[in-house]
Amino acid sequence: MTRKITVIPGDGIGPDIIDAATQILDKAGCDFEYEYADAGLIALEKHGELIPESTLAAIENNAITLKGPLTTPVGGGFTSINVTLRKHFGLYANVRPVNSFKGTQARYEDVDIITIRENTEGMYSGLGQTTKADGSEAEAMSKVTRLGCERIVRFAYELARREGRKKVTAVHKANILKSTSGLFLSVAREIGKEYEDIESDEMIVDATCMKLVMDPSQFDVLVTTNLFGDILSDLCAGLVGGLGMAPGANIGEKCAIFEAVHGSAPDIAGQNLANPSSVILASIQMLEHLNMHEQANNIRNALRDVIETGDRTTRDLGGSHGTTDFTQAILERL
User: Could you tell me which SUPFAM superfamilies the record lists for this protein (predicted)?
Assistant: First the structure.
């Protein structure tokens, strides 16, 4: 049965890489109907707002969204579009897997880590942000709740169990941030005891960064608060070749948004240069979320073979080809 999903092409290179992803989904036999919606600078130009009501309605109605990179204008009065979407739809879980692909410029060949980040609380909640008129002081408030901590930690353990993972590491800074990070760690310890089949570990965030760089193989699933998760997930992307090889999912109770996590790269927009791997990998995440595992595996295998063989790869992968050639190589394998 045909399923309708929302597609947000986004800004810069977004339309090109989203087009690549939808071609691949179609070739893999996913039988989706796409409802296209605007957000970001293109929406500001066409509708006078970054996230039109029609886009919010499409996301809510279809429950599943595939999204390209969005640009939030720099300057006062513009709130991050991604943060706004996460808060509006209660997308509390940010899921960022990274896997090594032979043929990339990565330093490691055996990385397989999922970072699960609380997506709606902490330093990114926007609470209490003030700056003195003379610019001499600024402050912001970090607030976490027991509900938020319980929800994200349990999500991590359930994902680990579902995917046959062996270990969940709670990443914190409770030695210094004794209130907020302390609450998170306390809750993580409580919930970890309920999952005797999964090893529970805890680690201070700065030590985690160091150990990820030295030996990423010791990590499996990381779960942490908003700010730390943002930093750690990008660090993990660097272990497998950069943000071009890292997808992301934002998951709530009623809907989910799957996205390329890199920027809109306006300097190469429309030049047929972008590597679409991040949004292709996000599409695979989306298919797995929908229990379409056969299609997900077929696309992953095709993408892996193209990168490993260097067949028509993009410049960031060591090749000399563009988005369309790279996409065509995947389509041929499918």
Answer: Isocitrate/Isopropylmalate dehydrogenase-like (SSF53659)
Q: What is the greatest pairwise CA distance in the chain?
A: 60
pLDDT, averaged across the chain: 95
The number of folded domains in the chain is 2
What is 165-207 written as a DSSP string?
--EEEEEE-TTT-TTHHHHHHHHHHHHHTT-TTSEEEEEEHHH
Average pLDDT value for residue range 233-253: 96
Q: Which residues are catalytic?
A: 124, 173, 206, 230, 234
**From 68-77, 78-87, 118-127, 275-284, the region with the lowest mean pLDDT:** 68-77
The H-or-E segment that residue 229 falls in is helix 226-239
Q: What is the CATH number of the domain that holds 14?
A: 3.40.718.10
pLDDT on residue 126: 75
Contact residues for 281 (Cβ-Cβ < 8 A; gap 6+):
97, 245, 246, 247, 300, 303
Helix axes 293-309, 323-333, angle to 10 degrees: 120
Parent domain of 77 = 1-111+243-334
Buried/exposed code over 61-70 (b: 16+ C-beta within 10 A; e: otherwise): ebbbbbbbbb
Residues contacting residue 202 through CB under 8 Å, at least 6 positions apart: 169, 170, 171, 172, 185, 188, 189
Domain for residue 116, yes or no?
no
C-alpha 233/C-alpha 302 separation (Å) is 25
The pLDDT value recorded for residue 184 is 98
Over 80: is that where the pLDDT of 219 sits? yes
Query: What length is written for the chain?
Result: 334
* Per-residue pLDDT, 161: 97
Q: Are residues 191 and 256 in the same domain?
A: no
Q: Which residues make beta-bridge pairs with 14?
A: none
